[in-house]
Amino acid sequence: MDLMTGIRERRSVRQFTPEPVSESDLRTLLEAVRWAPSWANTQVWEVVVVRDQEAKDRLSGLLARNSAQKATASAPVVLALAAKKKISGFYNGAATTDKGDWLMFDLGLATQNLCLAAHSLGLGTVIVGFFEAGRAKEILNIPEEYDITVLVPVGHPAKTPRAPQRREIEEFTHTNGF
Question: What is the CA 62 to chain-centroid distance, rounded?
């Protein structure tokens, strides 16, 4: 599959079969994270691979009112992405832009790589950002100096949704100014 096809066809999958994710496929996903771009090549990401059902159930409980709650419990694997604070976007301990900590951007890039790689392998993912991060850090033993930003349930899709409506290019493109 070429890159643009993968970008256009990737979907947020919330229903998975019980088939496990192979170690080879998991390694490919982690390799995709490894090669994501990051601020000054800081590579601030850390990935917690969650296969333990009790841990997935506990994480799922942190997704009240989130449509990915069942997917988090039922996916064969959940990848939790975290990053060390005050590294990305910082120089000599000070933020270098008015954006402050750049870790969200770096983890977004890593997450997109992960999800596109999963799609290319026939796996489904859903990006979960609406959860109780403080409690997730406790469940996964993530140190205080790290922020957990996203959970990504991964598995073989039981059902793949249709593409949502997208804005036309002309609706969001501006030339030489807004």
Answer: 16
